[in-house]
Amino acid sequence: MKATAIANANIALIKYWGKRDENLFLPQNSNISLTTDCLSVKTTVEFSSRNKKDILILNNRNYPPSSKEYKRYLKPFLDKIRKLAGTKRKIKIVSQSNFPKGAGLASSAAGFAALTAAINEALGLGLNEREMSILARQGSGSACRSIYGGFVEWRRGKKDDGSDSFALQIAPADYWPDIRMVICLTSRKEKKVSSREGMAQTVKTCPFYPCWLKTIDKDIKIAKRAIKNRDISLLGKISEENCLKMHALMITTKPPIIYWNEKTIAFIHKIRELRERGLKCYFTIDAGPQVKILCEKKDLKELIKEIKRMSGIKNVIITRPGPGVEISKSHLF
Ligand code: 2P0
């Protein structure tokens, strides 16, 4: 009843920002992401009658049942799993990530994908990838995408029960070996407004939300064509446009949600300037101040040189398309 899984964070190119069902984590719109190869979470779980209560240890810190992390994020997910598996046993979860949590680097996506796969293995649930994607989605929406490697689409689905809202692989990690996503950390602080609260507020109060939804089908179509043709300019352009549209929603939510800091904005200008000089690089930004830059291997050296000249960058991580969730034999406890 013990198992370990490793999952990688995914970065959205066409964004998920808003639910049509908060309990089942059903998105308002389909979205597309790239699973990275080195922002990873490793999680070991054990269900045991010896555990008197659930135990959650993230990056060596204990989160007791009274913590917000346990109550708001983990408990509802575990309740669903115990019901599905017909067990009352308590779980011990130990998880290690190699990047900061809650800073807009998709830590919950990798976290819930690894947790879902580890639980599937530990309890012998026998779920296939699609079923794991549906389950991971109910821990954190974007987690359904980290079940798969490479380029991934999370289909909105139409059904009320969420059975047709799952992720699918568009292209495996080795389909476009030369693409890179350069992740630039502009801050290590945890964000003030969680994605979950932020997107719910946007759906409720943003006057432009219906306009956003009308544009998504076209964005998805263009992004898929760009991925199929390995067209960095087209993929970069549509990703940037979609990202800015999402941030326009956030900024026009009541009260406004502004995830950018001054370095984020400096990056936006810098990347546009580099492009004018002929460098094919494109930004995307999620629910945090970090900037992710899409480019190809041949432009990486020049891009990194330019980034290093900018001040206040905490860290730069170069990622490639990475694999989906994997089971590991080496446990964390
Ligand atoms: C995305 N984000 O598509 C978008 C872009 C943030 C900005 O998915 O409430 O942590 O757990 O479903 O998945 C972050 O949202 O939210 C997210 P929940 P989640 O990557």
In short:
The chain is α+β, with helices and mostly antiparallel strands. The protein has helices at residues 68-85, 107-123, 129-137, 195-205, 209-228, 232-251, 262-276, 297-309, and strands spanning 2-14, 19-21, 26-27, 31-48, 55-58, 61-62, 90-97, 151-154, 167-171, 179-185, 282-285, 291-296, 315-319, 326-328. The protein is built from eight helices and 14 strands.
Count of helical stretches: 8
**What is the 3D form?**
globular
End-to-end C-alpha gap: 13 Å
Give the beta-strand count. Answer: 14
* Average pLDDT taken over every residue: 95
* Helix and strand element order: EEEEEEHEHHEEEHHHHEEHEE
List unreliable stretches of 5+ residues: none
Could you outline the blueprint of secondary structure elements for this entry?
Elements (H helix, E strand, L loop, with lengths): L1 E13 L4 E3 L4 E2 L3 E18 L6 E4 L2 E2 L5 H18 L4 E8 L9 H17 L5 H9 L13 E4 L12 E5 L7 E7 L9 H11 L3 H20 L3 H20 L10 H15 L5 E4 L5 E6 H13 L5 E5 L6 E3 L5
Parallel strand pairs: 5-7
Antiparallel strand pairs: 1-4, 1-14, 2-3, 4-7, 4-8, 5-6, 8-9, 10-12, 10-13, 11-12
Helix pairs in contact: 2-3, 5-6
The structure holds ligand 2P0.
Ligand 2P0 binds next to helix 2 and helix 4.
